[in-house]
């Protein structure tokens, strides 16, 4: 049995044929990229409102930046899992991805570090680009300018978003590791509370229906888990 370490939002879209899945290996870790991963990134990148070739190029740059950033995030998890002597694999799917490892083989401390490693390396990537950009001789009008902007945006926003203490995101996984099995119900109660708060804040501040829907889903999931444990 494998434990999944979900990042951002896990959503299994319609069945995807094997032909639409890209598989490769990086640093010895198998990676599987499902078709819905590209579709969801294009959606977040404004693909639905693209009306010119310049818009389409921007969406493609966003998709590639998102792919690179999220892959590095998952590599952070997977390489840490490997440091603890376990095999790992990465799957990128709609609205996120996950790194897998054999279930029940990590202790709480290891589990905490594995969960933290993804957002940390992803945030570090964004920070490196911000720090190094002034020193790179990037020509004005180069495609690298919007690409690096998207790379910073995805890396910083995705990393922070995943640290929210809402199970099963990375922050929720870290909280679960801190709480342990005996206080698992607190993990879900805190997850429920923060999911509701972030849904309301996300919608009222940014008008984000996507955030509202995902957080409402997490709130429901955490509430169900809390009720199941405390019943
Ligand atoms: Zn993660």
Would you summarize the structure shown here?
The chain has 231 residues and is an alpha+beta fold.
Structural class label: alpha+beta
SSE series: EEEHHEEHHHHH
In whole angstroms, the N-to-C terminal distance is: 27 Å
- Specify the number of helices: 7
Mean pLDDT comes to 90
Uncertain runs are 9-17
Small-molecule binders: zinc ion
Beta content comes to 5-15%
| Strands side by side in the biggest sheet | 1-5-4-3-2
Number of DSSP E strands: 5
Spatial extent as radius of gyration: 18 Å
Estimate the helix proportion, in percent.
55-70%
- Shape, please? globular
Tell me about the biggest sheet?
5 strands, mixed
Task: Describe the model.
There is one protein chain. Strand 2 and strand 3 (29-33) form a beta hairpin. The protein is of the alpha+beta class and 231 residues long. It has helices at 35-44, 53-83, 108-132, 144-162, 170-179, 184-206, 209-230; strands at residues 2-8, 22-26, 29-33, 89-93, 96-102. It has 2 domains: 2-163, no CATH class; 165-231. It has 7 helices and 5 strands. Strands 1-5-4-3-2 form a 5-stranded mixed β-sheet. The protein is globular. Residues 9-17 have low confidence and may be disordered. Helix content is 61%, strand content 13%. Helix 5 (170-179) runs antiparallel to helix 6 (184-206). The chain binds zinc ion. Zinc ion is lined by residues 7, 73, 77, 118, 162, 170.
Helices and strands in order:
Elements: E1 2-8, E2 22-26, E3 29-33, H1 35-44, H2 53-83, E4 89-93, E5 96-102, H3 108-132, H4 144-162, H5 170-179, H6 184-206, H7 209-230
Parallel strand pairs: 3-4
Antiparallel strand pairs: 1-5, 2-3, 4-5
Bound molecules: zinc ion (ZN).
């Amino acid at each position: 049995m494998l434990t999944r370490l979900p990042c951002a939002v896990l959503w299994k879209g319609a069945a995807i044929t094997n032909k639409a899945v890209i598989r490769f290996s990086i640093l010895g870790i198998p990676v599987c990229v499902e078709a819905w991963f590209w579709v969801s990134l294009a959606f977040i990148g404004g693909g639905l409102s693209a009306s010119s070739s310049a818009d389409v190029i921007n969406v493609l740059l966003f998709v590639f930046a998102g792919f690179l950033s999220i892959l590095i995030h998952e590599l952070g998890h997977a390489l840490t899992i490997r440091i603890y002597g376990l095999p790992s694999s990465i799957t990128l799917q709609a609205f996120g991805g996950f790194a897998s490892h054999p279930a029940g083989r990590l202790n709480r401390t290891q589990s905490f570090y594995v969960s933290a490693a993804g957002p940390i390396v992803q945030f570090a990537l964004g920070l490196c680009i911000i720090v190094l950009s002034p020193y790179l001789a990037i020509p004005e009008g180069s495609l690298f300018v919007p690409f690096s902007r998207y790379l910073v945006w995805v890396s910083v926003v995705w990393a922070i978003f995943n640290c929210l203490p809402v199970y099963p995101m990375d922050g929720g996984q870290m909280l679960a590791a801190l709480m342990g099995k005996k206080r698992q119900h607190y993990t879900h109660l805190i997850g429920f509370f923060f999911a509701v708060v972030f849904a309301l804040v996300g919608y009222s501040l940014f008008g984000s229906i996507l955030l509202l829907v995902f957080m409402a889903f997490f709130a429901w999931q955490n509430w169900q888990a809390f009720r199941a444990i405390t019943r």
